[in-house]
Amino acid sequence: AAKNAGKNQVALFTPELREARLERTRLTTDLRRARERGELTLVYQPVVDLASGDIRKVEALLRWNPAGRRPVPPDVFIPVAEESGLIVPIGRWVLEQACADVRHWHERHGVSVTVNVSGRQLREEDFGDVVLDVLARYGLPARALVLEVTESMLLATTPAETARIVGTLTRLREHGVRIALDDFGTGYSSLSYLRTLPVDILKIDKSFTPVSGNADHDRMHAFTRAIVELSAVLGLTTIAEGVESPEQAALLQQMGCPQAQGYLFSPPVGAPQIDGLLHSIPWRQAA
Ligand code: C2E
Ligand code: MG
Ligand code: MG
Ligand code: MG
User: Which keywords label this protein (predicted)?
Assistant: First the structure.
């Protein structure tokens, strides 16, 4: 190791990197205790049918509010949880909580919950069993659950691991669990993943959500339209992420995109607020 220490080793001792590593260690230690301290919560963001305004799904999004500190955003703590392996027990808790919460939303309103899963979870041998077990314990039809996976999840996997993940997802799908490909368009080889992975739903990343006023917007619209059409041809349901304005919603609907989520409809909110939204959908009354 000493022979190859060279440049890389030197970089490890810059103050910035040392500080960053210390912060990661601190985060990992705190995250390890977060669940038992009740610092983890789930919020839910509605996924809306653009034609009717109905809420079809809610996406479960994890929040961490450490005692005595500012909330840590998911983009910071999820990678820490993945590297430390903590995402496995935390992910199980997310699945459990999401299934508990969706039960009466599904019974009364036909709403499904979408849960983000990381590659680390999918690589666990018993992931499929864990999912089916949670569904059974809550008496939840598989239709009520959507698992969101990303293209990047497969980046570091060996062909054998990829095959096993595909096998797990295929088995869950045969039970009726649906699979969504999240952040579509941001990966390196989106199309090949679309061919590899068993998928029911395609979520267009918010960077493809059309913005009017963008100098390059005709070109962007062409990309977005092409993704929507590809998705339809493959028989997938398309969801556009990050929809913030009525103009965007109208454009997406014109393009044939059936569903969307974003601040235009609702930010992620607590379970009681989802109850309220399902009881009376504000954007539908406004129309
Ligand atoms: P994601 O799954 O792509 O989730 C969508 C993100 O976009 C969420 O960020 C959401 O709050 C945000 N968003 C929603 N509407 C809008 C909008 O109109 N405009 C903009 N600019 N943003 C919008 P959030 O909650 O910070 O989550 C970030 C990422 O963290 C998620 O991206 C997901 O990859 C990951 N994540 C969150 N919860 C979990 C979890 O339970 N497990 C795993 N493995 N990952 C999670
Ligand atoms: Mg997601
Ligand atoms: Mg996404
Ligand atoms: Mg994302």
Answer: Membrane, Transmembrane, Transmembrane helix
- Ligand 1 atom 30 nearest Cα: 74
- Asked if 117 and 93 count as a contact pair (C-beta separation under 8 A), the reply is no
pTM for the whole thing? 0.93
Closest CA to 140 of 107, 173, 95: 107
Closest CA to 40 of 106, 102, 93: 93
Question: pLDDT by residue (tens digit) across 153-186?
Answer: 877 788 899 999 999 999 999 999 999 999 998 8
Dist. CA 186–CA 205, nearest whole Å? 7
pLDDT digits (tens, 9 = 90+) for 103-151: 999 999 999 999 999 999 999 999 999 999 999 999 999 999 999 999 8
For the question of an ipTM over 0.90, the answer is yes
Which residues are CB-contacts of 139 (< 8 A; sequence separation ≥ 6)? 103
Q: Is the dihedral of CA 184, 41, 111, 87 positive or negative?
A: positive
Strand-pairing partners, residue 150, are 182
